[in-house]
Amino acid sequence: MKNAAFGLILALQFLTRLPVSVACPWTPETRRWAVRAYPLVGALVGGVLALAAYLMSQGVPAVPAPLAALFLLSLWVGLSGGLHLDGLMDMADALGSNQPLERRFAIMQDPEVGSFGMLALFFLLAWKGVLLWALIAQAAPFGWLVMVPALGRWLGAASLALIPCAKPSGLAHAWQRSLTAGDAALALAAPLALAFVWPGVWPALVAAGLYFLIARRALKRGFGGITGDLAGAMIEGGELWLLLCLWSWWQFATA
Asked: How far is CA 31 from the centre of its chain?
């Protein structure tokens, strides 16, 4: 149980900017438990977002949907410190370069952000903001705000456990040395618990699985596997995909 607790703390420290100043051992067991806790940390982030959305909806008058969406988006980015957005920008710069594989890796390690990275950041945040606005305007249940970050972090955990490393070094390699496919399965515990509480999570689980299969193929083809930056991009892309699926459901299936 001590390793599990340390793993949860490591996941909180790595995935969020919450002030958790506890020294944790960096061992194979704590790394495995940390990855298993990724979706739980995502659910915690989502719980904060859902609480904020609920409070804004209870005002008299309620906070207008555009302002509520912008606040939620800002809070979402702030809680993660933009960690996954950095990976998205690095991936966009690498892909936009049309360079050989080794040159792509060099571009991803460059601390400077190029035009492709800035464009990817702009459009991802714009799409997320507009989809948040639409879901708030449609009065969708706030449970989706818990589900999306939880499943997004599961995609990050699954990518580290189930996609071969693109390089024999780096952050992803450091994590993956201790992982097996069983860790990706155990990481599903938090999303599955949500599904039994709210059955609407089941279609989202299917959507997340479909996204993972497509993204896994694309990453292996474009980069030969996973890196830390690409795991971050997987999370950001997965969250956007899930928001789009949710909006489509509420727009058409419940009309």
From this structure: 18
